[in-house]
Amino acid sequence: MKLPGSFRKTWDVLLPFIIYNAACIFAQMVLLQLLQISGQYLGDSYLAFIAEHPGMLQGIMTGLYISAGLFAIRRAARKEIGPLKTVFRPAQSPAIADAPRSFPPNSPAIADAPRSFPPMPPAIADPPKPLPIESLVRPKLPQLRQLMEYMLMAALAFTSALGINILFSVTGITKISDAYSRTAENQAMIPFGIGVTVFGLISPLAEEVLFRGIIYNRMKKHYPLPLAILLSSFLFAIYHQNIVQGVYAMIMGLLIVFAYYRYNAFLAPVLFHSIANISIYVLSYNEEFYRAAVRPGVGIIFIAASTMIFVIIQYIFHKKSLCPPEGQK
């Protein structure tokens, strides 16, 4: 029986979300079972070590089950995202692009091609001249400009994440959810190095593959672009399972989609998410630094800075007339 069009679209969008969460839950169950079995065989010293380091165990298990979820959606990710684009995309030299291609006579790629080739110009036969020292010291302009654009994106991620979190703390929004308080306490137990690895690298990559790489890209095929942006960000908010993180994730989800759209590379949302997470994790890990930073004036300064950076990025890419991401019309 053929499914209705609307149901088929919804199923196409939600299936990766279901698979990812099911894989994470299954991996958690398996890891807990393995932990119990290993405790029976390794003895009291092992159990004592686990009891003394619950944060380390929790961080490692979190990284493992998130990785299991990412592994479960790898095929859908490969289909929707394709190979990651590099940060630097230097333009090919017109002289090289327009030059006639010559192949050796016995090249299998041109076995059936006519064997007449133009004579090699004398300029090509001469040995190459040494490059000027300026070209070795100074980076190429397209690469330098692209580096500056990504630095602006990093600044937007840093200022917006800190500004929103500081204002949430100042206004007392963080206190309205017990689930958020428990989540913050659990994250504070994890050792710093493991926390940065899990929440700053593994989690951003997995969540961006799921929500922007797969869900957002599929929504663009079925719905208008503004609706795809809003729905993918809303689903990203629901995924966090508490009101405080949900509101924050909704705002950040919109900014991350903006980065994806403007930079036209999947690396952009991953870096944005990673920088935002690391910034918040470092801020909240040091209690003295956190108390010094959580002030209304500091939050307003960060929000104002992020707004200014957002406008600058919008102006730069509007002037460049950047094409939309692959498959987007």
3D architecture notes:
It is a single chain. The protein is mostly helical. It has 2 domains: 5-80, no CATH class; 141-320, no CATH class. Helix content is 75%, strand content 0%. The protein has 15 helices and no strands. The protein has helices at residues 5-42, 44-52, 54-72, 74-80, 94-97, 122-125, 133-137, 141-171, 178-189, 192-222, 225-239, 243-263, 267-285, 287-293, 296-320. Helix 1 runs antiparallel to helix 10 (192-222), helix 11 packs antiparallel against helix 12 and helix 12 runs antiparallel to helix 13. The longest helix has 38 residues, at 5-42. The two termini are 32 Å apart. Residues 84-105, 107-111, 133-139 and 321-329 have low confidence and may be disordered.
Chain-wise SSE layout:
Elements: H1 5-42, H2 44-52, H3 54-72, H4 74-80, H5 94-97, H6 122-125, H7 133-137, H8 141-171, H9 178-189, H10 192-222, H11 225-239, H12 243-263, H13 267-285, H14 287-293, H15 296-320
- What is the share of helical residues? over 70%
Beta-strand segment tally: 0
Radius of gyration: 25 Å
Arithmetic mean of pLDDT = 82
Number of domains: 2
Distance between the termini: 32 Å
User: Roughly what fraction of the amino acids lie in strands?
Assistant: under 5%
**Uncertain residue ranges:** 84-105, 107-111, 133-139, 321-329
What is the 3D shape?
globular
So how many helices?
Answer: 15
- Biggest β-sheet: count, sense, barrel? none
The SS-based structural class is mainly alpha
What order do the SSEs take from the amino end to the carboxyl end, as H and E? Answer: HHHHHHHHHHHHHHH
